[in-house]
Amino acid sequence: MNVPPRFRLLLILPVLALAAFLLWRHFAPAAAGPGNPRLSGNIEVTDAEVSFRIAGHVRERLVKEGDRVGRGAVVARLESADLEQEVALRQAEVAVARATLAELEAGYRAEEVAQARAAVAQARAELTRAEADWHRQRALFAEGAVAARETEALRAAFDIARGRAEEAGQRLALLEKGFRPEQVAQARARLQQAEAAMELARTRLGYAELTAPFDAVVLAENAEPGEFVAAGTPVVTIGVLDPVWLRAYISELDLGRVKLGQTARVTIDTFPGKSYRGTVTFIAQDAEFTPKNVQTEKERVKLVYRLKITIPNPDRELKPGMPADAEIDVAGRPAS
Questions:
Q1: How confident is the model over 76-97, as pLDDT tens digits?
Q2: Domain spans of the chain, in order of start
Q3: Phi, then psi, of 223 in degrees rounded to 5
């Protein structure tokens, strides 16, 4: 039967309209409506680029990609011979400073005091003898029995003996009194300074070992043995693969229906037909425009909010960077 073109067009238009509606329903991203919001994003992990605090040559890297590391495990070391020598030097300085302080605090030895007392006694005896000789010589000189030169020589010997006796007495008094408090305080300060320098050297030596800050899996090897790395240069990248999380964005119109703790069904292209159960664990407080420079009244409905869906990943099937889709169960109760 021949159908006029006008009637044929009337039959085709409803079919085209229905097809367009179905395509729009299939591809529309996160549109507001009574159903569950559907979002798209990428799988991300909590990661860290682990680096040394000091510069140096990498002596060894103890892990490779895919290795699991525990918190505090050593993942790399720097050449540290110079740092070890610095520690040894500072330890020797501490030992010297400690011995000096102990000697000052203990005072002079008894043997030294005894020797000083003996020296005082000897000096005083010599002074007594010199004084007697000089007085006798002076009397003879007054009688004209001896020359003036001999008398002056004995006077000089008396003066020397008197000076030695005074010096010996002063030394004995110093030994009996002990060291001055200022000397002890200075020695104690030098010891503290040496100990601080030793602790700093030990700390720097500790920086030659690079440890993992948390339990993780090695995601990347960023430096090889023998390389010179500056402070802060990544040596390995580690990440937590269980759980992982999906970074996605939701429209402003759907924001009011999404709550923290709600469950989500997550799917990825790698495993068609398989889904993963996630939980909404973060919703941003600030909106972002899509695109960011569109701020007209008509386009403000396209404001989006970043959210985070945390997903258990015990089998490590979800990898960083994988594209993923999620459907949030807004009708169900938040997960406990």
A1: 999 999 999 999 999 999 999 9
A2: 85-203
A3: -145, 150
